[in-house]
Amino acid sequence: MPLARESLLDAAWTALARRPWSAVRMVDVASVAGVSRQTLYNEFGSKDGLARALVRREVDSYLLGAERALTGHPDPRERLAAVAEWTVTAARSNPLIRAALTGLWSERLPAPALTAVPSSVAVPAQRRADGPLPSPAELLALVRDQAVGTLTAPGAPRSDAVDIARGAELALRLALSSILAPVGAGGVAHLVRETLAALPSLMAIPGA
After folding, report:
1. Are 90 and 65 in contact (CB under 8 A)?
2. What is the pTM of this model?
3. Separation of alpha carbons 119 and 163, rounded Å
4. For the chain, is the Cβ count within 10 Å smaller at the N or the C terminus?
5. How far apart are CA 42 and CA 50, in angstroms?
């Protein structure tokens, strides 16, 4: 039931914006979504399953935004600056993305386990809900690998991919530091541009 699933996740997100996750009741989520509580349990199995699916949806949204940021400019340094800026913007506007990126889960938020948990409900949706969530390091690695795959030209030497990976790692680490301690004038994009400009290897990549 894709529509019911999305409605339930939307209802859970709305509830989380109004009260701590510990105070969110499954029956209220189901009521707001316009489905039965049994439908909610059929989809997610438990409150923790709902939390895991909600976090996964927000993480997937962040990754999709990172993918878009990596395709919007011919200069690879500008693309990395864009993905850093997106990372900071997404984390500041979405507490679940911020927690997923930093590992800092406040008492208001759900904190589902990163590892997979056994499922007693043999339905596809529940298996997805019980799948592993990425750790902060794994999440950054996914974006770094996105950058390498997008910015490395076909047939380019391996050194290009290594340089892009290094540049992406720097950009993302600067973004993380800016989430925790906001930077001044110019924001994180300016900081990333200045840092990557000092990397001659990245500047030598075609398009830089």
Report:
1. yes
2. 0.86
3. 42
4. N
5. 11
DSSP 157-189: -HHHHHHHHHHHHHHHHHHHHHHHS---TTHHH
Q: How does DSSP assign 78-117, residue by residue?
A: HHHHHHHHHHHHHHHH-HHHHHHHH----TTS----SS--
Q: How far is CA 30 from CA 17, 26, 96, 176, in A?
A: 16, 6, 21, 35
* C-alpha angle 95-83-57 in degrees, rounded to nearest 5: 40
Could you give the CA distance from residue 71 to residue 10 in angstroms, rounded to a whole number?
A: 29
Task: Tell me the pLDDT tens digit for each residue of 134-166.
Answer: 999 999 999 999 999 999 888 888 888 898 999
**Angle, in degrees to the nearest 10, between helices 47-69 and 26-33:** 60
**Amino acid of residue 60:** D
